[in-house]
Design a protein that fits this description.
- It contains twelve helices and seven strands.
- Helix 2 packs across helix 3, helix 7 crosses helix 8 and helix 10 packs antiparallel against helix 12.
- With about 290 residues, the protein is an alpha/beta fold.
- It has a seven-stranded mixed beta sheet with strand order 1-7-6-5-2-3-4, sandwiched between helices.
Length: about 290
C-alpha cells in the first residue's frame, strides 16, 4: 500500500487555510458540527452561553460547528451532556477522533494505538511518541509550504494525543533507536531541545520502553536505508511502515516484514545499550 506522508509518521502537508472537510473522508467533522449546532439551537442556547457551559469561547464553538476545527473528546462528552443529546454526539466520537489525522494515516494510527509491540528507528526527528508540544510545534512551523496556525495547533494536538499509548494498560512493548544527530538538532532552539531530551529520559524510565542511541561515529549502521516502524498486532502479525521523500509504504507481506524486523535487530545490536543511551542523553543535556 503506497500512501503520502510528510516526514514523521503522521501529519500531511495541507495548504494554508485548508479546513478539515477539504480532505477526503473528513466530512464527519462537518456533519458533527452541524448536528451540534442543531442541538444547541434546539436547546435555546447561543454560542456564548453554550461555550461557557462546555468550557470554550464562542469563537471556538463557531469553529467546531463550521467544521474548521476538530472537536476533542472532552468537548464531545460535555456537549452531549449539556445538550441532552442522549449519546447522539458521543456516537460520533470515534470517527471524529480518526478525522484528526490525514486520510492516509488513519489506518496506521489505528494500528499504532492497538499495537502490542512498537519498534521505531528514527533518523530525521525525535519520534512523535516522544515529542513535547513545543518540539512538535517547532517542526510544523518549519514546513513548506507554510501551515496556518489553526492547522499547526490541530496537528500538535493530534500528535500529542497519540502519546496516550504510553499510559495504556496492558502496556505495549516499545523500542526506539534514535540517531545521535537527531538528538543534537536544536529544532526550535536550545530550550525546546532541552525539553524534548528531558521528555525522552522520562519516557525511557518506563519498564515497557527501551530507548537506544545510534552514535554518529559508528562505522557500521544497518539503518542506512532510512527510518521505519514495526508494529505487532493482536494475534502476533507484524506490519512495517516505511517513509521517504513524501511517500509512505505499509508492508504486510510476511517475507518483507521479516526482512525489516531482522534489520531492526541488527540496528539495535549496533546502537548503545538502553542504559548507555540514557547516560548519553543526560550528557547531552549537560552540554546545553
Amino acid at each position: 500500500m503506497v500512501t503520502r506522508d510528510e516526514g514523521e509518521w503522521a501529519e500531511a502537508e495541507a495548504g494554508p487555510g485548508q479546513r478539515p472537510e477539504d480532505e477526503p473522508g473528513q466530512g464527519v467533522v462537518t456533519a458533527f458540527g452541524l448536528q451540534m449546532k442543531l442541538l444547541r439551537v434546539r436547546a435555546g442556547l447561543d454560542r456564548t452561553a453554550f461555550g461557557k457551559r462546555v468550557g470554550y469561547a464562542a469563537q471556538s464553538i463557531a469553529s467546531f460547528e463550521q467544521g474548521r476545527r476538530i472537536p476533542p473528546p472532552r468537548l464531545i462528552d460535555k456537549a452531549d451532556e449539556v445538550l441532552e443529546a442522549g449519546g447522539l454526539l458521543k456516537a460520533l466520537k470515534e470517527e471524529v477522533a480518526r478525522a484528526q489525522y490525514p486520510a492516509f494515516f488513519r489506518d496506521a494510527a489505528r494500528l499504532e494505538a492497538e499495537a502490542l509491540e512498537l519498534f521505531l528507528y528514527a533518523v530525521q526527528a525525535v519520534p512523535g511518541l516522544l515529542q513535547t508540544e513545543e518540539y512538535t510545534r517547532a517542526l510544523l512551523a518549519m514546513r513548506r509550504p507554510l501551515l496556518d496556525e489553526d492547522t499547526i495547533e490541530q496537528r500538535v494536538s493530534a500528535r500529542i494525543a497519540r502519546q496516550d499509548i504510553l499510559n495504556r494498560w496492558p502496556a505495549p512493548l516499545m523500542s526506539f533507536v534514535i540517531e545521535e544527530a537527531v538528538l543534537r538538532r536544536p529544532f526550535g532552539g536550545k530550550a525546546v531541545l532541552r525539553g524534548v531530551l528531558e521528555q525522552i529520559l522520562l519516557v525511557g524510565q518506563k519498564r515497557n520502553v527501551e530507548i537506544q542511541v545510534m552514535p554518529i561515529d559508528n562505522q557500521d549502521n544497518a539503518g542506512v536505508d532510512g527510518p521505519f516502524t514495526l508494529i505487532t498486532r493482536k494475534g502476533g502479525d507484524q506490519v512495517a511502515y516505511l517513509e521517504v521523500q513524501g511517500r509512505s509504504i505499509l508492508l504486510t507481506a510476511r517475507d518483507e516484514v521479516r526482512s525489516v524486523a531482522a534489520r531492526y535487530g541488527i540496528i539495535r545490536s549496533q546502537a548503545l545499550t538502553p542504559r548507555e543511551s540514557l547516560g548519553f542523553i543526560e550528557k547531552l543535556l549537560g552540554e546545553l
